Amino acid sequence: xxTGDYTRSLETENARLKQAVEExxxxxxxxxxxxxxxxxDRINRLILQICIRHFGVEQGVVHxxxxxxxxxxxxxxxxxxxxxxxxxxxxxxxxxxxxxxxLKHQRPLVSDDVQADSRFSGTTIEIPNVRSVLAVxxxxxxxxxxxxxxxxxxxxxxxxxNDQRLLGIIGVQSxxxxxxxxxxxxDEDLRAARSIQQGLLPKRVPNIRGLxxxxxARPALEVGGDYYDWIELSDxxxxxxxxxxxxxxxxxxxxxxxxxxxxxxxxxxxxxxGRVLSGVNELFGRTLDPDRxxxxxxxxxxxxxxxxxxxxxxxxxxLLWRFGGRADWxxxxxxxxxxxxRKTYEPYSVTFNPGDVLVVYTDGITEAASESGAHWDxxxxxxxxxxxxxxxxxxxxxxxxxxxxxxxxxxxxxxDITLAVVSFKD
Length: 426
What we know:
Elements: H1 3-35, H2 40-55, E1 57-64, E2 78-81, H3 95-105, E3 109-111, E4 133-140, E5 143-153, H4 161-200, E6 211-218, E7 226-232, E8 238-245, H5 249-267, H6 273-283, E9 294-302, E10 307-313, E11 319-321, E12 327-329, E13 348-351, E14 357-361, H7 363-366, H8 378-388, H9 393-408, E15 417-424
Antiparallel strand pairs: 1-2, 1-5, 3-4, 4-5, 6-15, 7-8, 8-9, 9-10, 10-13, 11-12, 11-14, 14-15
């Protein structure tokens, strides 16, 4: 072996040993840095800071796919620039051409000269200040979360095989950490949203002479689109509203909150249920997307006159269980609230007597499915109410929920469940 060969062999071995030491060190540094952090942006920033220092590059960017909008390519990401780098260099990004390539191929992109890269000939590269790019997909199992990109090695050297391999390993390791943090943030957001939504529901039972009430709401997910409320009106009257926003989860919950605000505003100035629904539709219904709608039932109960006036916007017919053992279904009503709904909703009236029970519900009750797919229909609801009609409103409502649970057994709740019960007393 010549002296030159020996020197090259020694240099190669030294490089291999350096790599064997540095790679675990970088990975351990990332693990230590992100271990105590819970926010996605903070984790991404720490990963990029370590990558920029180790790889000796000008800038790094993490862009994540938007999990809430599959049509949106990438949501705004986190960008880190090397300290002391030229501020006139601007903010580097992959641009539409390179981003499209990454999303299509979902494998590493290595380019030492982006502008001259034959893979992108005939296309416009929208990043004039970028000379070289090393980008890897961030994947969890078979799903792509985003892209980790590094730009412009400071010493002008090309990307080495070690660079490519190490960034690939970092990408694999980082993707799971980012996903865990994102799920944690989503859980926290959902818990906060659930707490806010629960705060929008009635906090106490109305104290109206001659009336006994019960209400319950159980979303299928952390939050839902069902809504019920009691409104204590003048002269000892009670307003009862139950509504169901199409869909479930966070989008339905946001619409539910808007609906409550519109309904409360309308109730302040109107007393007729028909006028209230017409006003709510003007304030809220006509702003909905064409594929969204809301069913709503609103009644004003006057225990002194033993009369209930109500209006329905396409809602499930409430059950008025008569003391003598007859089930009256309040079928009257019009189209759901929405952009194509009618301008006016007519009110209807019905009398009641002591011992009668009113049950207003959403379709999560009567469409609750068993493991075989059979629905717990309104006939079952009437039978369930009949067995407890002589008890309190709470006993009737809790019995309904128990019957639904027994019917569905271990089958997962597929829709929001909401219930309002009014028992008429002497």
